[in-house]
Design brief:
Layout lengths: L7 H15 L9 E3 L5 H6 L8 E3 L5 H5 L5
Parallel strand pairs: 1-2
Length: 71
């Protein structure tokens, strides 16, 4: 799971994947991010995502940590 102990390489790869995915999302797109971890995709895209966007993390403690529940 991601969090404060994320290694620099992990964070770099996460940001790379988010930027790559962002190119394929039009403004206002509704996104379902399964395995959202700390919500980096939502943090990066901010207001560009539609109101129906939702992040789901299978880890038991992640919903509290990531603020999962949609925008």
């Amino acid at each position: 799971p991601l969090g404060p102990a994320v290694r620099p390489l992990d964070r770099f790869l996460q940001r790379w994947r988010v930027r790559k995915a962002a190119r394929h999302l039009p403004p206002g797109a509704a996104v379902l991010d399964v395995g959202c971890a700390d919500g980096a995709l939502f943090d990066y895209l901010g207001e560009r995502l539609g109101a129906g966007s939702l992040g789901v993390e299978p880890a038991l403690d992640a919903p509290r940590r990531a603020g999962v529940g949609g925008r």
